[in-house]
Amino acid sequence: MTQPQANTAPTVLKRDSAFAVQCRVLHALILRELKSRYGNRRLGFMWAVIEPLMFISVFVAGFHLIGRSSQGGVEAPLFFVAGFSPFFMFRDIFSQVKSGTQGQQSLMMFPQVTRMDILLSKLIVNALISISVFIVLMLGLYVIGFQYRIENPLGVLIGFSLIASIGLGMGLVFGALAIRYEFISSFSEPLLGRPLFLTSGLFFSASVLPPNVREVFLYNPLLHCIEYIRTSMFVSFDSRYVDLPYVVIFTLILNSFGLMLLGVFERQRK
Predict the structure, then answer these.
(1) Is residue 1 assigned to a domain?
(2) What is the tens place of the pLDDT at every residue in 25-40?
């Protein structure tokens, strides 16, 4: 006598949500980016610490030679770390996002991977590395005897986030233009690098500038961000020249324009 067969319902495969797929793609791209940059370089992260440390040491020595040990009521090493670290984050994000708009066709063959996934992974990796370097430098200064207390950690995070967004926006704009006009890729960083280095408040505060010079420099949104980071970090530093609404509007327009350009030139490239 045969046993009656039990009714078996067909197996239903649960499909992941689009958000879950997006997170997995970003996770894989972030791991790939980290491996490609630091996988075979034992001193890769150390160089990320050494480079700003070299600049900071030069400017601290220069201040010492002219008999100054502080700026804006903040000891020189702390003042410079709060300026150079966010600026280097902007520089690296701008450079990596700009280069990320070129090539990468092997990754684009996967249907789950988009150009923005690649650019976001570069943004996240560079932001995390830069913030880690900033924390290492600040802890190092504390260990060797520089006493400080960060007054507004949220403000510091907002300042870094705005600088990362500016780097993303500029990378999108110049990277998209380089798709159509290849010569832009070779001169964009030298063209922007030195003027921004000199006008972003890395080694000065806005309050020490002559009024006519300060009015021009304040068109640079990075100066507002760095002033805001220092104001958020140190109780003795208080800048009345920070205009966050200006920075937010500038960032939104810059990123919107960059995304529009990237979309137009990506379609033409295909």
Answers:
(1) no
(2) 888 888 888 877 776 6
